[in-house]
Amino acid sequence: MRDDEFIEEVERRTGSASPEEARRIVEATLGTLGDRLGGGESRALASQLPRSLGDVLQAHVSEAAEGFDLEGFFERVAERAGLDPARGEPATRAVIEVLEEAVSAGEIDDVRAALPVELHVLFRATYPPSAHPPAR
């Protein structure tokens, strides 16, 4: 998925007022995810994203992941994107949904495994990391 396709899809799902607002939401979410992941896993995830988005993720990474909970995640996204706090959760979820479509399922499993269990609910998958999804 190209950078512009990723942004357009987030714009559509969030009902953003503009592509610029959608980009701020994407960058805020990826930056916050980078804060929480730490070094190794964020590099692997960034390698599957368009370069500009991977760079955003990497710009927020330190070797030691920051500790904050699910509500803190949503609050950081809203603050960084300049959104009303009530939009933090739905905006974050929209970006994560597009992320799940843009990178491999195995990488999403690895990201989930690198996060505390409380943050697994950010992802649509309901099966444990590294397990296979139920057959459809």
Task: Give a summary of the structure in a few sentences.
By secondary structure, the chain is mostly helical. Helices cover 62% and strands 0% of the residues. Helix 5 crosses helix 6 (88-102).
Structure commentary:
The chain is mainly α and 136 residues long. It has a single domain (3-122), classed as Globin-like. Helices cover 62% and strands 0% of the residues. The protein has helices spanning 3-14, 19-37, 39-46, 51-59, 70-81, 88-102, 105-114.
Mean model confidence by pLDDT: 88
Please give the oligomerization state of what you see: single chain
Largest sheet features: none
Shape: globular
Q: Any idea what the radius of gyration is?
A: 14 Å
CATH level 4 superfamily: Uncharacterized conserved protein DUF2267
Distance between the termini: 25 Å
State the helicity in percent bands: 55-70%
- CATH domain class: Mainly Alpha
* CATH architecture classification: Orthogonal Bundle
Task: Please count the beta strands (DSSP E, at least 2 residues each).
Answer: 0
Quick tags:
136 residues, mainly alpha, Globin-like, 62% helix, 0% strand, disordered C terminus
Please write out the topology.
Blueprint: H1 3-14, H2 19-37, H3 39-46, H4 51-59, H5 70-81, H6 88-102, H7 105-114
Helix pairs in contact: 1-2, 1-6, 2-4, 2-5, 2-6, 3-4, 3-7, 5-6
